[in-house]
Amino acid sequence: EDEQIVAEIMGRRFFPDFIAYKTWEGFRFAGHEIRITEATDCYGAVVWPSALVLCYFLETNSKQCNLVDKNVIEIGAGTGLVSIVASLLGAFVTATDLPELLGNLQHNILQNTKQKCKHQPCVKELSWGIDLEKNFPRSSCHFDYIMAADVVYHHPFLDELLLTFDHLCKDDTVILWAMKFRLENENRFVDRFQTLFDLEMVSNFPSLNIALYKAMRKGGMK
């Protein structure tokens, strides 16, 4: 079953038939052909398999996880694929990442959502753990969903990442988080994450070493 679903997920990716002056990959989700411009010299500007897993979940569970008119934020949006799919499924999306990635992120989102979505997504800078209250004040920012794909890996900002999840998450916010397990850091982060959030594994793909989680704040609304 794992291999069949993984084959279906990876089958959503396609490549150009000719050499283009820009590096791009194509994907088919939410009834649209999505073209993503990448930069292979930057981790944040490449589509990783965890993003495909999350997009597949959003598309195939659109009744149980209805995004229409929901307020969604993606952290570590990278190339923007997850934000684009969530937008095409009817959500109002805020796609966030580091300032050096925003140009490519904005390009991909505009190219793939303009005049195709109920709500035009916005792109915003978010450096984990920095100026959170200033840029995303708790009093006025309420997100129905926080989405993240492959944000946990070998980097020195795991404390800031957990702080960011904590700041953005209200009692009724649902976190959808796809992660590839590579090193022990990932396991340790999951343990720390569970001190603040109730965590449920929604899907597991051993052949990709990727798990998809759903989480809510401890003591929050179920």
Automatic annotation (TrEMBL):
Any one of the GO BP annotations: methylation
Q: Which gene encodes it?
A: Mettl21e
What InterPro entries is this protein classified in?
Methyltransf_16 (IPR019410), SAM-dependent_MTases_sf (IPR029063)
Offer an example of a GO molecular function term for this protein. methyltransferase activity
Source species, domain of life: Eukaryota
Ranked from the top, the taxonomy reads: Eukaryota, Metazoa, Chordata, Craniata, Vertebrata
Note the CDD domains from the entry: AdoMet_MTases
Alphabetized, the UniProt keywords read: Methyltransferase, S-adenosyl-L-methionine, Transferase
Q: Does the keyword Transcription regulation apply?
A: no
Keyword presence, Nuclease: no
The name on file for this protein is MT21E methyltransferase
